[in-house]
């Protein structure tokens, strides 16, 4: 892709103060990431890796400690007025539709809320009708006076998506958008997101721990570990031939994966105490098996940090062993 990014993150660091004198937690510890018009990027990683914090930074909800976010060629302005205008163009869809919807608001009011906040000057009823129609709630008028408790989980998530789409955003940030839904409904919601991309040219960042979801919806995947992206590239390339041991471990536990699942030992390190060298080395199956020694990179794994990966679309990996394997 040669198209200029719609949104770009460069050198992003987000640090939270430690409690009771503890060191600050480096939730996002150096990230570059581009999302181009019409592109869906999946941000994948286990809980606590920093992916939700990175997503919140894209929405302007968390100002960076260092680095910057650029949208449509201009740096993100964190003034209240600028953020209000920005959030008309960038919308959020959360994991739990029940928590996203006010139980006292009808479906009509839930979808119209964004229009009212942003001072929509057109026909509100027509805009709500169109948004519900796009979200697959047909006929839309049948849902106007319903309350969230009267809907199924899939219908509630469609209302949340309609509420985001009513403002005709250019970018959707979806944080685990199908995690709370039954398996039978997940495919419908993913198909809806793909249809919105096809019809409207919508871009999306989909935050997930589910590599199967990434496979089904994304053009590109970025795998995050302990505050940093450790592998990125075309979704088919990364998920069929993963190069980073962490990506390999994540893929190995999928039901359809060949071979023996890789069981990682221990928990991810504390983001306030990121280890020296490769941040994955304390749990790395390649290091413990002796393969890194054979490749002559074991010391580098333990002591030499890896640079931040470029935010572009090319396949990249932050791993001494994977790079040594290519070189040989």
Automatic annotation (TrEMBL):
<dbReference type="InterPro" id="IPR003439">
    <property type="entry name" value="ABC_transporter-like_ATP-bd"/>
</dbReference>
<comment type="similarity">
    <text>Belongs to the ABC transporter superfamily.</text>
</comment>
<feature type="domain" description="ABC transporter">
    <location>
        <begin position="7"/>
        <end position="251"/>
    </location>
</feature>
<keyword id="KW-0547">Nucleotide-binding</keyword>
<dbReference type="InterPro" id="IPR027417">
    <property type="entry name" value="P-loop_NTPase"/>
</dbReference>
<dbReference type="InterPro" id="IPR003593">
    <property type="entry name" value="AAA+_ATPase"/>
</dbReference>
<dbReference type="InterPro" id="IPR050319">
    <property type="entry name" value="ABC_transp_ATP-bind"/>
</dbReference>
<keyword id="KW-0813">Transport</keyword>
<dbReference type="Pfam" id="PF08352">
    <property type="entry name" value="oligo_HPY"/>
</dbReference>
<dbReference type="InterPro" id="IPR017871">
    <property type="entry name" value="ABC_transporter-like_CS"/>
</dbReference>
<dbReference type="Pfam" id="PF00005">
    <property type="entry name" value="ABC_tran"/>
</dbReference>
<dbReference type="InterPro" id="IPR013563">
    <property type="entry name" value="Oligopep_ABC_C"/>
</dbReference>
<keyword id="KW-0067">ATP-binding</keyword>
<protein>
    <submittedName>
        <fullName>ABC transporter ATP-binding protein</fullName>
    </submittedName>
</protein>
<dbReference type="GO" id="GO:0005524">
    <property type="term" value="F:ATP binding"/>
</dbReference>
């Amino acid at each position: 892709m040669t198209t200029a990014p719609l949104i770009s993150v460069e050198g992003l660091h987000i640090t939270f103060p430690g409690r009771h004198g503890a060191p600050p937690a480096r939730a996002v510890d150096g990230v570059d990431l581009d999302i181009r018009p019409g592109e869906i990027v999946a941000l994948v990683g286990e809980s606590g890796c920093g992916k939700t914090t990175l997503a919140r930074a894209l929405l302007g909800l968390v100002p960076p400690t260092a680095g910057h976010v650029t949208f449509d060629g201009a740096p993100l302005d964190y003034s209240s007025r600028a953020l209000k205008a920005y959030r008309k163009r960038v919308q959020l869809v959360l994991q739990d539709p029940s928590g996203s919807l006010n139980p006292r608001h009808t479906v009509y009011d839930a979808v119209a809320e964004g229009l009212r906040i942003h001072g929509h000057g057109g026909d509100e009823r027509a805009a709500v009708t169109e948004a519900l129609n796009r979200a697959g709630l047909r006929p839309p008028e049948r849902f106007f006076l319903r309350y969230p408790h009267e809907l199924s989980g899939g219908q509630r998530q469609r209302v949340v998506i309609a509420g985001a789409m009513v403002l005709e955003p250019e970018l959707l940030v979806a944080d685990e958008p199908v995690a709370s839904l039954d398996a039978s409904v997940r495919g419908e919601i993913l198909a809806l997101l793909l249809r919105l991309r096809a019809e409207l040219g919508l871009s999306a960042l989909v935050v997930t721990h589910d590599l199967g979801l990434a496979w089904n919806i994304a053009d590109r995947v970025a795998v995050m570990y302990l505050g940093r992206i450790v592998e990125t590239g075309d979704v088919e390339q990364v998920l069929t031939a993963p190069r980073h041991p962490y990506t390999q471990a994540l893929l190995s536990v999928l039901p359809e994966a060949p071979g023996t699942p890789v069981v990682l030992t221990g928990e991810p390190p504390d983001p306030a105490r990121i280890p020296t060298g490769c941040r994955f080395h304390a749990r790395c199956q390649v290091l413990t098996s002796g393969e890194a020694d054979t490749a002559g990179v074991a010391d580098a794994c333990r002591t030499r940090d890896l640079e931040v990966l470029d935010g572009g679309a090319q396949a990249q990996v932050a791993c001494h062993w994977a790079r040594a394997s290519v070189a040989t």
